[in-house]
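Fold it.
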Amino acid sequence: MPYEQIIYEVQNAIATITLNRPARLNAWTPHMGRELYAAFQTAGRDDAVRVIVVTGAGRGFCAGADMDNLRGIQSGTAGDAPSEPAEHVANGEILATHPALATAYAYPLRVSKPVIGAINGAVAGLGFTYMLYYDLRIASDRARFGTAFARRGLVAEHGSSWMLPRLVGMANACDLFFSGRMIGAEEALAMGLVNRVVPHDELLSTVYDAATELATLSSPRSIAVMKRMLYGHQFTDLATATAEADAEMVASFPTADFREGVASFLEKRPPRFTGR
């Protein structure tokens, strides 16, 4: 489908989704949200795609909800609130997983492929919330992060109060939510909000190197199963998680990817995984 506010490209088994409103620091609109969801569905269904990268065009990653839309909400004239339509709530359309993850913004967790955020600049508000749902986040040393909600008279939205403490701990989550302050990339790394910080000019090459490694050296079947386990097991107990993991391990033994993983190791060559 043609996109107006994002760019969608696939190359070398990597789907890149670029938020594309650079003049507004890629501020979020409901239209952008719908396009992002559609792009994730496309990538999730495409067997040629093994990794999804999300980044922003221009200087920013996503400055949050578009202020014109917020002004309309404040005045009672907005025709479209900055949230996703009901049809975006999962009904197993991307990845069968725990029902607690069937929320509007959690679909990056439900897609079976790893999602890497290439955080190229400022990210705040709704952009910050959306970024929490990526599996990995690699940041430019120019990136800055802030929740902004308390400074706009708003509150933690769309499950961010559940996600953020799991990434940075409760004390850091309280700091970021209550203060609404912006933090730099190094502080975000120290908190655990991002996995890595790299020089700005090396961001995309670093992200694509990491994505290529996942796409070529890791079994897509293994990643899909482990991703479902990692997020689904946040809602269960150790005994249940262990029983499911043991069953999934046994289910891996007859697969083509297990045979290929062993063969490639013994033959000292790169694997040729099929996801089966």
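The longest strand covers residues 6-11.
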